[in-house]
Amino acid sequence: MDAETLCYLPLHKVAEKLRNREITSQELTKALLVRIRQANPQLRAYLTVLDAPALNAAARADTEITAGLYRGPLHGVPIAVKDLCQTKGVLTTCASNVLRDWRPDFSATLVDRLEAAGAVLLGKLHMTEFAVAWYHPDFPRPMNPWGADLWPGASSSGSGVATATGLCFASIGSDTGGSIRLPSAANGVVGLKPTWGRVSRYGVFPLGESLDHLGPITRTVVDAAHMLSVIAGHDPVDATSLHMPVEDYAAACERGAKGLTIGLDEKYLSAASNEIGAAVIEAMRTLEQAGAKISSVRIPEIEGPLAAWIPICTAETAAAHEAYYPARAADYGPGIRSFIEYGRKVRGQDYAKAYMVREGFATRFQTLFETIDIFACASMPESALPAGVIPDDVNSLLGPNPLLNFTAPYNLSRNPTLSLPCGKAGAGAPPSLQLVGRLLGEAALLQAGAAFERASDWHEQRPPIDFG
């Protein structure tokens, strides 16, 4: 098997080869490190590459697997995490000069869980500064592999790019208004935003704490299930972590679509491009043929909730940066400075009003799941957005915002979502289908997503990247 094919294998296929000792973790890790050295100068997906630590971890994994001490599907598999996830003794910069020299004293809970499962950490992935919408001027932005002039998604852009181009077998992203789903859609991969509180946020630099979700970006739905199985679950040091049992997500992927009811609001979907809308509707036909029932529904009004997202997120961001801002304002890029400044001016009563709008929407949205199991829509309004789609300051996010139309509502409502390719790539990445589940309904999302992948091959498309 040539290196290109090897690096693009799905995580679950690599796991089988490692368990059967058809390949070693050291061989895998070396192949990916070579690929990163070749591609990263062009793609700029990684901010930090952990060559020696990764090879040491791979050697330990090989020793354990050979001795029969197999830890599970992530054992020996090279992955990477977004650079806001703390890693003990390793640079964690959040792509900002504010933290350019920060080496944390401990790792985030999800990093500890991934390493306990035997995963090999390749490095830290690029992102917009502190996970808002803009890159710091000193951190050149990642390149979308589907086109150098296209937007790579935000804020987990490096996670989307690295996963799409075979620079890791899976990655971790964070999502406060769309930052797992938008990079997944923009780069043609799978993104899973779990229920708020399903995955511990301890040791992860916050953006908006009541909105922040953490989850995997992968190349297949089954891979997302394996990643979620490791990082999900109660964490006693995270007060917002849900004390609920973790389901067998991999088993859910084998159930098929029969018995699921999926809701579709075609009026809501019409806010996406014709290409995206047609692809989502065709995906519904595919799932219907696979045994799902498709039902017409209407979601609650979202304009008010989307307007509420701004004061909530900006005020919570200002709170998260209180130790650094304004004392170190000069070290921030202009985009996030404008975002924090806006948040510092949000009055308490305005935050309270916005929060009640949020709670009203969240309550109304949950009633959809009295008659359906999953709600389907787009992940992003278009497949190919220009690199400069978000102008330079917070004013670009005020008022009606088509970019957040399909994402931010489900941060406000706290529901889990699954994004996956659902059509043929054109001017950019393939169209992306978003499935939204009831609270703690990740298993049903993975069940439907895996059934769709078995009935189609859209997830097998690769970006036309040339590392030369």
Give short descriptive properties of this protein.
468 residues; alpha/beta; Amidase signature (AS) enzymes; eleven-stranded mixed sheet; 16 helices; 11 strands
How does this model look, in words?
This protein has 468 residues and is an alpha/beta fold. The protein has a single domain (3-460), classed as Amidase signature (AS) domain (Amidase signature (AS) enzymes), CATH 3.90.1300.10. 37% of the residues lie in helices and 12% in strands. It has 16 helices and eleven strands. An eleven-stranded mixed beta sheet has the order 1-3-2-4-6-5-10-11-9-7-8, with helices on both faces. Strand 2, helix 5 (109-116) and strand 3 (120-125) form a beta-alpha-beta unit. Helix 6 (157-164) runs parallel beside helix 7 (181-187) and helix 12 packs across helix 14 (348-366). The longest helix is centred in the first third of the chain and has 19 residues, at 25-43. The protein is globular, with a radius of gyration of 20 Å. The chain starts with a helix and ends in a 14-residue tail after the last helix.
